[in-house]
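Q: Now give one record:
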Amino acid sequence: MLEILYRDEHLVAINKPSGLLVHRSLIDRHETRFAIQLTRDQIGQKVYPVHRLDKPTSGVLLFALDSDTARCLNAQFTTGQVQKTYLAIVRGRTPNKV
């Protein structure tokens, strides 16, 4: 079960764990679990991906609950009206000189 961070009549945001693909992909043809299907099954309605996160990336994943909202949000991502921010948690040391 995925953690639902936000839901209203137009959107659902989930906490995507690392290692989960957003949807079927040639990246991993043997994978059987996908965020889009898990979310759909969990909330009982079709979801439309608004953006993607790479398989090894964890974070907030946003789905629209109807095609009109998906189209509007996809356009906002495409035109740069919406921005994603990535934070990295690392362990170790970097060289003093880069």
About this structure: The longest strand covers residues 11-16. The mean pLDDT is 91. The beta strands are 3-7, 11-16, 48-49, 59-64.
